[in-house]
Every structure is written in C-alpha cells, then in structure tokens.
C-alpha cells in the first residue's frame, strides 16, 4: 500500500496501476515492494509504458514553463522594446496553462521502462552489455552469501570511481538497485558489500552507445 498526502494508493502487480501510482513512480517516490511491482508490470504492459511517458512529459513541461517564467532576459536583450519581454512571458504562461489544462506536450525525452539486468554468479559468466543512458535495474544474485539485513550496492567505472551507491535488502536470493538515468558509455563493475564490511561479489558490466 502506497501513501501520498495521507491517502492509500493500492496497487498489485497484476492490475493496472492507478493514475496516482503512475504519478508517484514518475516523481521517484516509490520504494521497496511497490517500486518492484510497478517496474515488473511496465515490462509487459505497453499501455502503462505510454502512461509513464505521458506523465514524465507532463512533469517536465511544468518544470520547463516554470523556469521560463522566472528566468530574466539576458543583458544583451534588455534594450529591446518592452513588448518583446511581455510576449516572452505570455508565451511561457500560455504553455503552462495548456499543460495544467491537461494537454500533453510531446515528450522532452524518450522515457521507457527500465532494462532489468540480471547479474548472476555462475562459473564462466560473461560480462553483461546494456545501452547507454537507459534506466537500469541491476538484479544481483546473492545465492550462497550470508543472510544480512542490508547490503551495500556500488557501481564503479574502469578507474574505480564510484558512480552509484545504495542500500538493498535481500529478496528471493536477489538484491536490486535502480539507476534511474542509466550509465554513459564505458566499462563498469557492480559490487556488493556487507554493510560496512568487505566486498562479497563483483559483476562486470559494459555500456555501449
């Protein structure tokens, strides 16, 4: 059960999520089991993928219009006639009104469901390859590892610099980490640690354009 402004937002993976649940997902408010359920649903439901894309565009459109309304004209343009400035503000205000009225502006970015990358600890396992800048859900196999309350997840680049860090819990011999904006092109290593302790497992990951 999700919570938003004191109201419950029920969702089960085999149902279509409500509009409030889609909004919470787009804003990055979902966590734990609720986040996993909706991401698994998005993998197989094209209708809900489109709903997420529309919600992303709606949110970004509001932010874009808000920035336009508050951004002053550059010093080089101040000598121009006053009518230009009011025209600029009016256009931004019109954009905001259209968005608030329910019009869906074309997406400012191509949003899609995240790619689930299963990293397994098996003999002869190969390096996993994913697309650059694609949202990712890293699923790390923890079979045979100590049963811990929490694990530390880390993604480092080829030089060892940390790119992503998060805490995860064990579910069905897996620990998950979400990279909402994916990774740029390059070679990476996904590592799993006992919280505050030694590294337990490492997986290789390659990101292509």
Protein described:
- With 209 residues, this protein is α+β, with helices and mostly antiparallel strands.
- The protein folds into 2 domains: 2-100, no CATH class; 115-208, Immunoglobulin-like (Sandwich), CATH 2.60.40.
- Helix content is 32%, strand content 29%.
- The chain contains 4 helices and 10 strands; from the N terminus they run ββααααββββββββ.
- The strands form 3 sheets. A 5-stranded mixed sheet has the order 4-10-9-6-7, with no helix packed on it. The chain has a 3-stranded mixed sheet with strand order 3-5-8, with no helix packed on it. A two-stranded antiparallel ribbon has the order 1-2.
- Helix 1 (19-27) packs across helix 3 (46-70) and helix 3 (46-70) packs antiparallel against helix 4 (82-100).
- It is globular and about 60 Å long.
- The two termini are 38 Å apart.
- Residues 1-11, 75-82 and 103-111 have low confidence and may be disordered.
């Amino acid at each position: 059960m999700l919570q938003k402004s004191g109201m419950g937002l029920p969702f089960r993976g085999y149902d279509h999520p409500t509009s409030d649940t889609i909004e919470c997902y787009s804003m990055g408010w979902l966590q734990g089991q609720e986040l996993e359920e909706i991401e698994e649903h998005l993998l197989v439901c094209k209708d809900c993928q489109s709903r997420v894309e529309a919600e992303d565009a709606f949110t970004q459109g509001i932010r874009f219009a808000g920035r336009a309304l508050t951004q002053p004209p550059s010093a080089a343009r101040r000598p121009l006639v006053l009518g230009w400035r009011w025209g600029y503000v009016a256009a931004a205000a019109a954009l905001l009104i259209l968005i608030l009225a329910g019009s869906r502006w074309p997406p400012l970015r191509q949003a899609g469901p995240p790619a689930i990358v299963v990293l397994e600890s098996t003999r002869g396992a190969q390096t996993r390859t994913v697309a650059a800048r694609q949202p990712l859900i890293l699923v790390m196999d923890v079979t045979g590892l100590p049963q811990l309350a929490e694990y530390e997840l880390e993604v480092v680049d080829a030089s060892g610099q940390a790119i992503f860090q998060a805490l995860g819990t064990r579910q069905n011999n897996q620990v998950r980490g979400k990279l909402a904006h994916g990774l740029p092109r390059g070679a990476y290593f996904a590592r799993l640690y006992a919280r505050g302790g030694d590294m337990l497992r490492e997986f290789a990951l390659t990101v292509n354009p």
